[in-house]
Amino acid sequence: MGILLEHQLIRLFLNTYIDLLIKWSENINNNNDAVLDNDEEFLFREISVRFVLLIGELNKLNFYIFKKLFIDKRLIDLIQQCLNNIATNEKYLNDANLESLSYIIRILNDIIHYEDDVQDDPILLPIIGSIIKCLCSKYYLETFKQLLPSSTSTNELSVKQNFY
Q1: How confident is the model at residue 49 (pLDDT cuts 50, 70, 90)?
Q2: Please, which domain of life does this record's source organism belong to (predicted)?
Q3: What's the Cα-to-Cα distance from 43 to each of 16, 33, 74, 91, 117, rounded to whole Å?
Q4: CB 31: neighbour CB atoms within 10 A?
Q5: Closest Cα partner for 44 from 114, 118, 115, 95?
Q6: Do residues 107 and 79 touch, judged by C-beta distance below 8 A?
Q7: How much is the average pLDDT of 50-73?
Q8: How far apart are CA 103 and CA 121, in angstroms?
């Protein structure tokens, strides 16, 4: 597994994911109708899903390789920016591509909880404030109100509900 994680193809996937995350974020902020085309949406989702499958193999032998791969300043800064935007702009919460961001956040969560020392990594600290902004946003409370048994929602969770 360690050799696979260090392969240039994995880094290429991560760089492609970052490029698509930038495009998605910029297009939402600019109110563009076509945020990502169908091929880009597919690639964005599939890369994040493949990374989730990879993180399932996290262990003591490959932990530092995962940490090196995902605790990437460029990726973390971009996630922080997206989280800040999500806290103030409902357009993100209504976009199906939010799920691809959510997967990467879950991966970071797995890495952070695998080894306590990672929690103090200065690269990760700014994300905490952005997560708090999301949790304190009006959208967070609205999402839980939609989950109440008296609401008219279906049994299936929306992208927004899954995110929160």
Answers
A1: very high
A2: Eukaryota
A3: 9, 19, 19, 21, 32
A4: 8
A5: 95
A6: no
A7: 93
A8: 20
